Each structure stands twice: as C-alpha cells, then as structure tokens.
Input
Amino acid sequence: MTAMDLLRALLHGAAVTQEGSAAFPADELRYVLEFGQIADADLERLRLSALLKSEAFVLAPFEGPGLEKFLILRFQGVEPTLPRRDMFSIGYELCDALGLVSAEPDLDTPFFADPLPGPPLRETESAQVLGPLCWVPTEPPTDRTWALTRTGVPTAWALSRGEGILVGQPDSGVATHDEIEPDMLRLDLAWNALNGTGDPTDPLRDGAANPGHGTGTASVLASRAGGIITGAAPAAELVPIRCLDDVKIFNAAPVAAAVAHAGRVGCHVISMSLGGVPSRALHRAIQQAIADDIIVVAAAGNCVGIVVWPARYNEVIAVAGTNSDDEPWKGSSRGAAVDISAPGELVWRAQRARIRSCLRRCARPRNILRDCTRCRHRRAVARRAWPRSSDRRGAPPRYKRPGSLSRRTQADGSQAGRLGCRVFGGGRCRRGRPHRPAACLDRARCPGIGSRSAANGRVPRR
Output
C-alpha cells in the first residue's frame, strides 16, 4: 500500500465538507502545500479531489501578506496519529502528483515541554529535551525588578516606554489577570488561529503544559507600572494571537498564520516565546514581516540544547537566557545562532492556577484545613505575590491565589516545575473554617457560594 492509498483509506467514509475556513484546530491532520506560483484554491481543490477520490477535506488559503503561494490542506475529523514516516511519505507523494514545491505535514513537536528529571545527556547537536538543565536550586532574587535593572531598561525609559508601539504576540492567548490591564491589549486586532475567530482567550485547559503561558509572557513584556510587576515596555500595546493550544506542542502552520496576521494589522514588533522544527511557510511569513520593517524576536529555546526555529532563522533575533549574575542560564539553548541574551532565569511574571487539579488535590476537607494551617502566617494573600518555595520538581509547593505571581526559570517565562495548588482567596486561614478551594467557583456544582469570580484572585467565603 502506498502512502496515497493509506490517505485514501483514512478518508473513506469521512464526511464531505464545503467549509473553507483557514482555522488551525489542534489534533487535526493537516498539510501546508507550497506552489510555484500564486495558487488558485478552487482549481487545486478539483485536482485534489480527483487525486484522493474524496471530497472530505478543506483547502483554504492563508490570510496575510507573503503567503499567497501556500494553501492549507485540512482533513477534518482525522487526527494526526500516523507514524511520522507515513506522514512525510504522504507529503512527498502529494508533491509528485500535484507538482508542488513542498507539502509539509503540520507536526506537533514537543520542544517546550516541561522536562522530566533524568540522567545527564551528552552534549551533542540534538533537539532532545535535556531535563536536568532546567532545574535551578538557587534562591531567586527578592527584587521583582532585577531583570529590568540588569538590562538597563529603566534608563531606556527616558527615551521611550513603548508609546505608540504595537507588539504582536503569537502564543497561547491571554487570560484575565490583575497584571493584564484592559488598556494593554488591542483586542480589536487580536485573532485566534486555532478556531478562526477574534477571541484570543486562553481557556487554561486541563492537561495542557503551563496553562497561562501567553498571559505570563505578556506581563513580562508590557505590564503597566501600577501593578505588582512592570513590563519592559509598559506603554506598548499588545496584539494577542492565540496559535498554540499547548505550550509543549509546536505546530508551525498556525504560527506562520499568526505572524502573517501580525503584519496585516500593523504590528511593529513580533515577539515569540515558542519554537520547534523549521517550516517553509513560517520562514516565508517572517521574511515578509522583515520586508515590512517589522522586528521579529524569538526565544532561542528551553531545555533542548540547540537553537530552535523560528529563532534559528537569520532574519529573527534569537534571544538566549541568563541569570541574575549575567551568566548563561543552564537550560537555555546556545550556539552560533544566538544573537543576544537577556534575563530568563527566576524572572517574575504573571501566573495562573491549575484550578481543577487544585480541586482534585484539595477536595477532602481535612486536606484543605491542613494546607490552610500551613499558610496561616500569610496576610493579605489577595494583594500580594508569593514565590514558590522551590523551583525543583518534587519539592512541596507553596499555595497562592489564582492570579498571583511566581518566579520562573525559563527564558520565555514557561514553567520549570509543578504549579502549586491555590486554595486561598483573601483574608486569613483559620483552623476549623477553611476557605473553599479555588476550583469550587462553579455555581452549578457548588450552590450557595458567592458570585465573585476567581479571575481577579478573590475566592468567596462560606
């Protein structure tokens, strides 16, 4: 059976769809087709239908400058569970049959996954996750502004604080947080590449690696001066673009579409705390952004050793991570492709809680009470930001409210350890009267609780 026969078998009996959406939903088999000239989607749809002997696919153009020669081939309802070898074989046969320049499968590469502890690995040019490099046993700086002062940002504010600058942020989207003020976001220009809508909200999905990643990186970039932390450009405006469902999974096609969208809406800078394998569509979108005088910056990589893409492209400024002593962070990618370095270890950022995992851990009343008495010395929890007791996996976490802050170890702000279970709102922890867990905010599941939302870090009392 050839690779094309395998694809036809997958499509046998699949529902026929006429939808032409350019959305990039997660867990969907998808290819990016590159043509030698500007592609006619209607004509190519007829050719594909004859080749596949099926109409159970969506063929849609990218929306944005520079990607006119690319089309998105989506197989709705078909998950990308084929072996990688078969997925590439299908791409090669599509190239030969249709006379394409390239046909790249949109592979989910786990380059930003939270690493697991393990034995040291050889220092080789590979993209294998290097877990031991990511753990930082040292105590973090107590000064929340140390990363700004180390890089001379307060001095630069005399020249500009980012007024009038639009920063496109392809990431996991944003969630409600005290450090993300309304005037900081240009939601009228935002986009969700995963579902094709204008809502970039991060759903903080259970099971996702580091939920709230986009919220954290946004706070490092542009949190306003009146908050607990201050971003590097506190007067800039962000255009959040949700193109990742899970930080540990990198799909190049939605990122390419996100870069193109940022250029289309007039962003001056594109900042990406993500990375994975190379992609011709992503590279072309970046080249177009550079041609339009947009500055493109990307994290060099976390815990993978080598510099990943898109940071590895010559057009992109690749940023590696350092610590408070201006030394390389152990988990940062390194090599000749790195252009500059900036603080990436134990940097303060906004963080969201894993609400449901908190409920599972703290569902039994005595556990809630025990955890409460452990933290009884904390006051004004709803207004203060408490660091984790350790950034090492296996160490007991401290407990803090949703919407609190945490010191991180990753160059892009992604999580290096387990999140603590946040069970407290404001006020004191009193024996015999523990607060409800933060997860218990669904009135349908928990009748009788107050109406105030946990989004701002306040949990209703009994």
In short: The chain has a mean pLDDT of 74. The first strand starts at residue 29 and ends at 34. The radius of gyration is 23 Å.
